[in-house]
Specification:
CATH topology: Tetracycline Repressor, domain 2
Strand content: under 5%
CATH architecture: Orthogonal Bundle
Radius of gyration: 19 Å
Number of strands: 0
């Protein structure tokens, strides 16, 4: 196995392990056992637990970035682009129990700030999607899409924090999906909503 293959294997399995156990219980030793790999090999890439966790989160960022690029290249309908991307984000966000996500924010605040910065970095992508949807008659023409994209991403960043979900006893995936539905109905036209409905019907078969 090449060094790059080893690295990807560590990060992929590391993400699953962190999602299951949380960062407090996560150890290099437990990850090594899951991978049937020596601790020495993991330490070769990541000399500290914090660097490993930061790299795992950056690995997730890379996966989400790839989804943005792939969806925007392969899917021609901006309304469906919006839904596909949010479904991917929801899938990643819903992998870890809320209390485990709260651990990450509490124990590694600097890494959590990187997560928030990553969210905000996609504001321009959402603007592009919403602007194109408007140009194609899929989104309402009475909305300033620049403002809408700024408000949208900042609501996600400011409101969707671990303590919000815990305080209100809300499931992450279900809540985000509900929020996306509300936003979609407020932004997209009947033509856009029809395209989204068709995508969901096609993918529920």
């Amino acid at each position: 196995m090449s060094p790059n293959q080893q690295l990807n294997q560590i990060l992929e399995e590391g993400f699953d392990s962190v999602a299951e156990t949380g960062v407090r219980a996560f150890t290099v030793e437990s990850l090594a056992k899951r991978l049937a790999m020596s601790k020495k090999t993991i330490y070769k890439f990541f000399p500290t637990k914090e660097k490993l966790i930061r790299s795992i989160m950056q690995f997730v960022f890379t996966q989400i970035n790839s989804t943005f690029k792939r969806v925007m290249a392969d899917e021609s309908n901006p309304a469906v682009q919006f839904i596909k991307i949010m479904e991917t984000i929801t899938k990643f966000a819903g992998k870890a129990p809320l209390n485990k996500i709260a651990e990450l924010k509490s124990l590694y605040p600097d890494i959590w700030k990187e997560i928030e910065s990553f969210r905000l970095s996609h504001q321009e992508d959402f603007y592009t999607i919403l602007y194109n949807a408007q140009e194609q008659g899929l989104a309402r023409d009475d909305i300033n899409m620049r403002s809408a994209s700024i408000i949208y991403i900042n609501i996600i960043n400011s409101t969707f924090q671990p303590e919000f979900f815990l305080k209100n006893d809300l499931a992450i995936g279900e809540t985000i999906r509900g929020f996306v539905q509300v936003v979609a109905r407020g932004i997209f036209t009947d033509k856009g909503l029809k395209a989204i409905k068709g995508y969901h019907e096609q993918n529920s078969i």
